[in-house]
Design goal:
It comes from Butyricimonas paravirosa. With 80 residues, the chain is mostly helical. It has one domain (4-68): lambda repressor-like DNA-binding domains (434 Repressor (Amino-terminal Domain)). The protein contains four helices and no strands.
Length: 80
């Protein structure tokens, strides 16, 4: 099960990707990942999530700050 911070981060990446009208398959290709893996990350019922290296690469690809993927304040109870 994903933690609250993982769910938040995944949603922020997806929102930014969709703002740029970037299809999941194109995004996955740019990240050198399979679209199936990205689909599993975006599925809240799997335990797959982005790591910090992924988030750094995503920020470069989506032309934003890595901080854009994190909440202003930490979650006190991070586990779902």
């Amino acid at each position: 099960m994903k933690s609250k911070i993982e769910l938040y981060t995944i949603e922020k990446v997806k929102e930014r990707r969709e703002q740029l009208d970037m299809k999941l398959t194109y995004f996955a290709d740019c990240m050198n990942m399979s679209h199936q893996f990205i689909s599993k990350i975006e599925d809240c019922d799997t335990d797959k999530a982005y790591n910090l290296d992924h988030l750094n690469d995503i920020a470069v690809l989506l032309e934003c700050s890595i901080k854009d993927f994190f909440p202003d304040k930490p979650f006190k109870n991070n586990k779902k």
